[in-house]
Write the structure tokens for this entry.
Amino acid sequence: MRYTHAIVRTPARALGRGITTQDLGAPDVDLAREQHAAYVAALRTLGLAVTVLDADEAHPDSCFVEDPAVIWNGVAIITRPGARPRRGEVACMREVLSDLLPVVELGGGEDVRLEGGDVLFCEGRALVGQSQRTNHIGLKRLSARLREIDPALTTTGIPLSGVLHLKTGMTALRPTFLLRDPACRMTARFPFARTFTLPRAQGYAANVLPVNHGVLIAKGYPLVATLAREHYDTVIELDMSEFHKMDGSLTCLSLLC
Ligand code: CIR
């Protein structure tokens, strides 16, 4: 998939009031904003036009724009976050996205739960984490929407625990090369790809963000840096310390299309 555009949102001053399972202390919002600016610059270096939305103080987690929508084949599907305090992010994201591309709803009732961080596209598949934030009904709704958008795509549910979202614990450095955090517990196997399980201390770095000819990786994880350089000419290492404190990682800071 060749990307031309990214949507990001400046971290709110209220970032530290967001949801987290980490015990890494409160985020320094000024530093988070510096790290966010470096992230935006990296996306621009890789050729993307970046839309930077203003901070939304009513929603402390709103810089994690990946969760309220899933984009595939130029169509945005609006999600229904499993985290109740994050549901208010959806309306604004719907409005922003409808200026850029066709937008469809997940549909279904009150019980539907789905967050974009649980959706990993690779090798003609959508792998959907069934995490604490995404349930079976959410998976079914997404599968139906994706089938309308791209009948060739197969959607597979991946029950998991130990991490927030599927992509917190596993991403594709290349479509057939998955990086996995051993903290992500799942029984699914991925026969189409090689899966590289990182040492526990480097597990956070399993979340990488390939963008066209390059890849963004978290700074301070030498093993992933070496692997990334074997596969890409342009490898950009970014300090993610303040987002890590809030369970955030590279993919969750942008929506790409
Ligand atoms: C949350 O718990 O919802 C936020 N603090 C972090 C969301 C990170 N999103 C993502 O990995 N896709």
